[in-house]
Structure formats: C-alpha cells, structure tokens
Amino acid sequence: MRPANKPDKKNIMKHIARKRFGQNFLHDDNVLSNITESINPRDGDTMVEIGPGLAAMTDQLLRSLKHMHVVELDRDLVARLEKKYEPSRLTIHSGDALKFDFGGIPVPEGKKLRVVGNLPYNISSPLLFHLAEYVDKVQDQHFMLQKEVVERMVAEPGSKVYGRLSVMLQWRYNMSLLFVVPPEAFDPPPRVDSAIVRMIPVANPLPCDGPTLEAVVQKAFSQRRKVIRNCLSGMFTEEQIVAAGINPTDRPETVGLAAYVALANLLKPAA
C-alpha cells in the first residue's frame, strides 16, 4: 500500500492507484499522526521508508528528520518525489524493495537503520523475509500491513493462525500489533482492515542455522492438520521429536519456537 497527501485531492486524481503496485492512498490525518507517534522519529535517525507513494508519511517524518531515504518502484511517483524534495532532504532509491540492498544505506557508527512503510499486500511475506536478512543492521521496523498478516506474525502457539511466518519472524523479532486501520482511511479503500506492527530485532536469538530452521518449519506446516510426527516423517524419527521436547501427537500449530529450533539443531547444530 502507498500513502498519499490528503490536502491536495488533485494529486490523488493525477495519479491513479495501480493495482499491480498494491497502491491505496492513506488520507486520514489521525491515522498518519498515530503512525508517526508510534515511530517516534528523532533527529539523527537513519530512516528508510518503503513505498512512500505521494509522500504523506514522508512529509510527517521529515518534520523531525533532516534527511531520510525512500525506496519506490513506481517511476511516476519517483519523478514526483524528485520534484518535491531536494536531495539534501530525501535520497530516492528507484527500484524494487524485494531486490534492494538495505545494508548499503550508510549509517553513522554506533547507529542502526530504522525502517518504515506501507508494504504492498501482494509481496508482504517475501519482503519481510528479505528484510530479515538485514536484521543485524536494524534498530526497529514499523509497517502497515493487512491485518490478517500481522495477526499471523504475532500469533502464539495454539492459535489457528500460528504458522511458518510466526515462527520464522519471532525467531528474529519481538513484535506487537499496535492498532488497526479501517478501509475508509484509504482512497481507494482496500477490502480488508490494515494494522500497524512494530518489529524490534531480538538481541540474542536462539542459536540456530536459519535455512535449516526454515526447512523444518516449512515441512511441519505443509500438512498442518496432521500430527507433527507425520508432518516431519522422513526428516526426523519419533525419538528425535521427543528429544526436542515435543509430543509426537501434537499438531504443528501447538509447537513453540524453542522446540522448532531444537529440531533444527538436531539436523545442523548451530555454529
């Protein structure tokens, strides 16, 4: 999704929302203020916004920041941003956030990157996993996403929506759903509710090989209606599952992060 400036409705008319980019223009001033307050930008922060669109959120953030970075795929919007801001205030990275090297943004020594944005719903999960590659360089992340996605991200074991996304992101981040944003806050309104999520990297994640954990979790949740013994058949014996502290007759959505990490470490011990 992309935010847009509310005051000038002509701007919205000039740029028609493009479905292929997942564009919905945020026009609610109260929501914009609440998001900015949640982010709490401070002078000296190195901030990067994904998908600034018509710069509604960018404008808000630059009231507290001397400079920030944005990543925008839509070339028409890039041209607008170039006309609106001096390079001294805004560095514009024209391209796909899924391929962008967030580690290439210069950050002062002792500081880390702050990432914000309205993430397009159609690429939200792949983009979250791409950003996880830079978790060691990040201070925090604040995103607007489809409410259902945020609920999956923060879900606890035993929840019907707890799954691969929950486990993999909770391994690297402490996350919280801050508040829900209704469809009428956007133009055009999406068909679903949105939500703001805060993601703060875990200081000391459980030691584990990431790709191995991903393989275990993906296999476990590929047949979530089955008991975990059957889901992981061919990857682990029942004895190994028990050794990881898991009841073999439990279902995948009841197994916690630590147990999945223990399974992964049976396959490939953490370095």
TrEMBL record:
<keyword id="KW-0949">S-adenosyl-L-methionine</keyword>
<comment type="function">
    <text>Specifically dimethylates two adjacent adenosines (A1518 and A1519) in the loop of a conserved hairpin near the 3'-end of 16S rRNA in the 30S particle. May play a critical role in biogenesis of 30S subunits.</text>
</comment>
<comment type="similarity">
    <text>Belongs to the class I-like SAM-binding methyltransferase superfamily. rRNA adenine N(6)-methyltransferase family. RsmA subfamily.</text>
</comment>
<feature type="domain" description="Ribosomal RNA adenine methylase transferase N-terminal">
    <location>
        <begin position="31"/>
        <end position="203"/>
    </location>
</feature>
<protein>
    <recommendedName>
        <fullName>Ribosomal RNA small subunit methyltransferase A</fullName>
        <ecNumber>2.1.1.182</ecNumber>
    </recommendedName>
</protein>
<feature type="binding site">
    <location>
        <position position="72"/>
    </location>
    <ligand>
        <name>S-adenosyl-L-methionine</name>
    </ligand>
</feature>
<feature type="binding site">
    <location>
        <position position="51"/>
    </location>
    <ligand>
        <name>S-adenosyl-L-methionine</name>
    </ligand>
</feature>
<dbReference type="InterPro" id="IPR029063">
    <property type="entry name" value="SAM-dependent_MTases_sf"/>
</dbReference>
<feature type="binding site">
    <location>
        <position position="96"/>
    </location>
    <ligand>
        <name>S-adenosyl-L-methionine</name>
    </ligand>
</feature>
<keyword id="KW-0698">rRNA processing</keyword>
<keyword id="KW-0963">Cytoplasm</keyword>
<keyword id="KW-0694">RNA-binding</keyword>
<dbReference type="InterPro" id="IPR023165">
    <property type="entry name" value="rRNA_Ade_diMease-like_C"/>
</dbReference>
<feature type="binding site">
    <location>
        <position position="26"/>
    </location>
    <ligand>
        <name>S-adenosyl-L-methionine</name>
    </ligand>
</feature>
<dbReference type="InterPro" id="IPR011530">
    <property type="entry name" value="rRNA_adenine_dimethylase"/>
</dbReference>
<dbReference type="GO" id="GO:0052908">
    <property type="term" value="F:16S rRNA (adenine(1518)-N(6)/adenine(1519)-N(6))-dimethyltransferase activity"/>
</dbReference>
<dbReference type="InterPro" id="IPR001737">
    <property type="entry name" value="KsgA/Erm"/>
</dbReference>
<feature type="binding site">
    <location>
        <position position="24"/>
    </location>
    <ligand>
        <name>S-adenosyl-L-methionine</name>
    </ligand>
</feature>
<keyword id="KW-0489">Methyltransferase</keyword>
<keyword id="KW-0808">Transferase</keyword>
<dbReference type="GO" id="GO:0005829">
    <property type="term" value="C:cytosol"/>
</dbReference>
<dbReference type="InterPro" id="IPR020598">
    <property type="entry name" value="rRNA_Ade_methylase_Trfase_N"/>
</dbReference>
<dbReference type="InterPro" id="IPR020596">
    <property type="entry name" value="rRNA_Ade_Mease_Trfase_CS"/>
</dbReference>
<dbReference type="Pfam" id="PF00398">
    <property type="entry name" value="RrnaAD"/>
</dbReference>
<dbReference type="GO" id="GO:0003723">
    <property type="term" value="F:RNA binding"/>
</dbReference>
<feature type="binding site">
    <location>
        <position position="118"/>
    </location>
    <ligand>
        <name>S-adenosyl-L-methionine</name>
    </ligand>
</feature>
